[in-house]
Amino acid sequence: MAGLAERTTMTTAAGGDTREGLLLTGSAFALWGLYPFYFKALAAVPALEIVLHRIVWSSLLLAIVIQARGGWHEVVGALRDPGLRRGLIATTVLIAANWFAYVVAVTGDQVLDASLGYFLCPLVSVALGVLVLKERLTKGQVAAVALAGLAVLMLIVKLGIVPRMALFLAISFGLYGLLKKRLPVSPLVALFLECALLLPPAAALAVWLWLEHGLVGPTAEPFTFVLLLLAGVITVVPLLLFGLGARRIRLSTVGLLQYIAPTMLFFEGVLWFGEPLNPWRLAAFVLIWAALALYTGDGWLRARRAA
Questions:
Q1: Per-residue pLDDT tens digits for 164-220
Q2: What is the 3-state secondary structure (H, E, C) of the chain?
Q3: Which parts of the chain span the membrane according to its record (predicted)?
C-alpha cells in the first residue's frame, strides 16, 4: 500500500505487545487506510505525475532520515553488491507498478477493488510461498486460499468480470514482499534505494509529460500544489511509524493489524465515495473475510502451540 507494510526483521517485545507498539503500528495502518482521501483530492493530477512526486519527495525525505541516522555506509555497501542491486531493481519495478496502480484505482473510483486487492495480499503471499519457496500449507491455509480462489472465480462467472485491479495490486505487492524479504538490507535503506533508482526514469518521464501535455503540478492551485509537495511525508511517515511500532509487538499482532487499512478502504468506498456494492461483489468480500479468518486463526493456533 499503499504504501507498504513490509515484511521486516522484527524484534518481538519480550513481554508481548506494548501499548506504544500497538499505537504506532495501528497508526501506520490507519494512515494507509486514509490514503484514498489524499489521492482523491489530487484527482485533477494525472496518476503518473502523482507517482513522480512520490518518488522525488520520498527520496529527499528518506535521504534526510538516513543522514540523521548515519546510514550512508549501508547505502554504499548495498550498491556495491551486484546481487543486491539486481534484487533492488526488481523490487523497484514492482513497487513503482503497485504505486501507479493504486493511484489509478483510487482516482478512478475503484476504491473497493483496492480494498479487495489488499485483503487478498496475505493469501497471495501464502500461495507464492508454495509456488516459489516450496513451502507446505496447513489444512487451514489450504482452505483459506481455496476460499479466496472461489471468491475470484465467483466474480468472473457471476458478473463476467476479472477483478484485474485487485489481482494486480495483490500479486504485485505479494511479489514485492517475497523479494524484499530476501534482500539483506534494512527496509529504510531499501526503500530509499528503490526511490533513488526511480529518479532517472522519473526525470525522463517528467520531461516527456511536460513536452507532450504539460505538467499539472507547477500550474496547479495552491492547495493541490501543497498536497503534491507533501507526497514524501504521506509516503514515508506511515513506514517509519510501522518500523518503530512493529518491533514492540508480536508478529501475530502485526498480522491482525494489517487488516485495518483494507477494512477502512471497504467502508470508505461504500459509505463515503458511493461505489456500487452488488450482492455478488459483497458475497466475494464475505468469502475473502472468511478466508482471512481461517488464515489468521490457523496462525494464532500454531503460535500458541509453539509457545
A1: 899 999 999 888 888 887 888 888 898 899 999 999 999 999 999 888 877 887 777
A2: CCCCCCCCCCCCCCCCCCHHHHHHHHHHHHHHHCHHHHHHHCCCCCHHHHHHHHHHHHHHHHHHHHHHHCCHHHHHHHHHCHHHHHHHHHHHHHHHHHHHHHHHHHHCCCHHHHHHHHHHHHHHHHHHHHHHHCCCCCHHHHHHHHHHHHHHHHHHHHHCCCCHHHHHHHHHHHHHHHHHHCCCCCHHHHHHHHHHHHHHHHHHHHHHHHHHCCCCHHHCCHHHHHHHHCHHHHHHHHHHHHHHHHCCCCHHHHHHHCCHHHHHHHHHHHHHCCCCCCHHHHHHHHHHHHHHHHHHHHHHHHHHHHC
A3: 21-38, 44-66, 87-108, 114-133, 140-156, 162-179, 191-211, 223-244, 256-274, 280-301
d(CA 120, CA 259): 10
Q: What pLDDT score was predicted for residue 252?
A: 60
What is residue 257's predicted lDDT score, i.e. its pLDDT?
Answer: 81
Whether residue 152 is predicted with pLDDT greater than 60 in this model: the reply is yes
pLDDT tens column, 24-41: 988 999 999 999 999 999
User: Alpha-carbon dihedral of residues 29, 31, 37, 41, nearest 10 degrees?
Assistant: -130
Answer positive or negative: Cα dihedral of 249, 132, 140, 262: positive
Exposed / middle / buried, residue 86 (Cβ in 10 Å: 0-12, 13-18, 19+):
exposed
**What was the pLDDT predicted at 1?**
55
Domain residues of the chain, as ranges?
40-300
Alpha carbon distance 229, 18 (integer Å): 34
Instruction: Locate 305 and state its grid cell.
Output: 502451540
Distance CA 14, CA 291 (A): 30
64 and 260 Cβ atoms separated by less than 8 Å: no
Q: Would you give the distance in Å from CA 80 to the centre of its chain? A: 28
Question: Pick the residue with more confidence: 145 or 223?
Answer: 223
